[in-house]
């Protein structure tokens, strides 16, 4: 009979994001990666924070259904501009439009993390809010930035951990890695609650 105590469970990151993989690697826990099969389309009228939480849980549940003995992490980030969700731009044109809309504005990046283990019945989620104030960027700055970093796979079209920091006036957060895509303080709290021992 296999040992099903929490410390022996496989940890799986239910995400294909290279940013989340790098962040989770900082905890020095062995983990596998699995792609969640989840429709990320927002529901009509769904608030950005609700969307982030719903998708983080959906991703963790989807992977946990395939790996019921594992502890699974799901996460999602939505940029919130005055209550409107902004997703990953996907290309240069949409990224340009996003940054033009965000210049001089405060954007709240809603980053949710969920941890699910079907075998133990554990399921919890938390949300980290990061307030980001963008500088009043001109079109030339936006174009130079996008050509240099091509952040088309990032919600809000900017990488604060790279050159994108130059676009900003301020960042306010109680969980510093949340803006990159995985709030590690909250992730650690959830993993401990699920029974994992962190180094």
Question: Mind explaining what this structure looks like?
Answer:
The protein is an alpha/beta fold and 199 residues long. It has a single domain, classed as Maf protein, CATH 3.90.950.10. It is 30% helix and 25% strand. The chain contains 5 helices and 7 strands. Strands 1, 2, 3, 4, 5, 6 and 7 form a 7-stranded mixed β-sheet that branches. A hairpin with a 2-residue loop joins β3 and β4. α3 crosses α4. It is elongated, with a radius of gyration of 17 Å. The two termini are 27 Å apart. The N terminus is likely disordered.
Give the tags.
EC 3.6.1.-, alpha/beta, 25% strand, 7-stranded mixed sheet, 199 residues, Maf protein, single chain, 7-methyl-GTP pyrophosphatase, Maf-like, nucleoside triphosphate diphosphatase activity, hydrolase, 7 strands
Protein topology:
Blueprint (H helix, E strand, L loop, with lengths): L10 E3 L4 H8 L6 E2 L14 H19 L4 E11 L2 E3 L5 H11 L3 E12 L4 E13 L4 H11 L18 E5 L11 H10 L6
Parallel strand pairs: 1-2, 1-3
Antiparallel strand pairs: 3-4, 3-5, 5-6, 6-7
Summarize the structure.
It contains 5 helices and 7 strands. 40% of the residues are buried. One of its GO terms (cellular component) is cytoplasm.
Number of distinct beta strands: 7
The tally of structural domains comes to 1
Number of helices in the DSSP assignment: 5
Tell me the Rg in angstroms: 17 Å
Task: Pick out the low-confidence regions.
Answer: 1-6
Quote the beta fraction. 15-25%
Task: Note the run of SSEs as H and E.
Answer: EHEHEEHEEHEH
Mean pLDDT: 93
Structural class: alpha/beta
The CATH topology turns out to be Maf protein
Architecture (CATH level 2) name: Alpha-Beta Complex
Q: Determine and state the CATH class.
A: Alpha Beta
N-end to C-end Cα span: 27 Å
